[in-house]
Amino acid sequence: MIELSHLTKVYGDIAVVNDVDMHVEAGTITVIVGTSGSGKSTLLRMVNRLVEPTEGRILVQGNDVSKMPAHELRRSIGYAIQNHGLFPHWTVARNIATVPMLLGWDRRKVAARVEELMELFQLDHAQFAGRYPHELSGGQQQRVGVARAMAAKPALLLMDEPFGALDPIIRGKAQADLKAIQRRTGTTILLVTHDMDEAIHLGDRIAVMDGGNLKQYAPAADILARPADAFVDDLIGAVDRPFHYLTLGSVGAAVEPGEAGGAPLAADASLYEGLGALLWSGRKAAPVVDAAGTPLGRVTLDSIADRAARPR
Ligand SMILES: Nc1ncnc2c1ncn2[C@@H]1O[C@H](COP(=O)(O)OP(=O)(O)OP(=O)(O)O)[C@@H](O)[C@H]1O
């Protein structure tokens, strides 16, 4: 879907993005993570040509973006940013309709798409379509921002710290919703964050940037098990590593035959959630059920602990 080769951006005499090669598979979420100033936003913004590269090449769906008119390119790629960038004097419906209208869609098709997106993002049409951005909560504005970025069904969505302004609870919900929506729509997402938890939670693959260099580019489990260097290791955080690991596995994968008492755990809950439930209820084991409530066996503290250990 995206092919970056030797991508470089120099400001003054500093390469803020330095010779980056990266291949992003269609239909996946790739998260670019790194400390402040590491070049994440610059890298992202070169994809839709808000920033022009000094050197290197970007192909999106096989097309060299430098050869496409910038305004056309930007209409074909969704872009969502931290403070949502909503037009303050336009209603929610008009904001979401921005790109389809620029593309000259017919009015009924635009209206239907706005309704469809508002439903997808759980914004009641009757209640919210006519409101202005300042009449929404931060979380609602964030959903409108992402709905607007997805309005013209772009195959590619770029997101720059889209959840940065949200409180932790709303943020967790927004991440879960985005993941579910991405799985339904198959949109390819390239997302920038400085938050490793978010990267591990959302990313099919994670790209770690430091000082303009791409330090490691791999699935989360590989980055946790084999960080490329001390910087990546530090970014993960030694204390958090086993817990990150547990967020990647499901209770269902640790089920064993046998019985246990107390409230059951859902097989699709993460091992991290399972660990929390066991510790909090003071149990060493819990029964596990599938989505229909059928008993599958039990999960024990020991089996969860085994899965938190560094793979050999
Ligand atoms: N237009 C510009 N002119 C000069 N330097 C720039 C320009 N834009 C960005 N930079 C510099 O490039 C470096 C990378 O910036 P960038 O915004 O890509 O970092 P980032 O990793 O996204 O950081 P943050 O997480 O703080 O947003 C920074 O040192 C920044 O000061």
From TrEMBL:
PANTHER family assigned: OSMOPROTECTANT IMPORT ATP-BINDING PROTEIN OSMV
Family: Belongs to the ABC transporter superfamily.
Name of the protein: Amino acid ABC transporter ATP-binding protein
Pfam families, sorted: ABC_tran
Keywords linked to the UniProt accession: ATP-binding, Nucleotide-binding, Transport
Gene3D superfamilies, per database record: P-loop containing nucleotide triphosphate hydrolases
Molecular function, one GO term: ATP binding
GO biological processes: quaternary ammonium group transport
Annotated SUPFAM superfamilies: P-loop containing nucleoside triphosphate hydrolases
InterPro entries (alphabetical): AAA+_ATPase, ABC_transporter-like_ATP-bd, ABC_transporter-like_CS, P-loop_NTPase
Residues of the ABC transporter domain: 2-236
Record carries keyword Nuclease: no
Domain of life of the source: Bacteria
Keyword Acetylation (UniProt): no
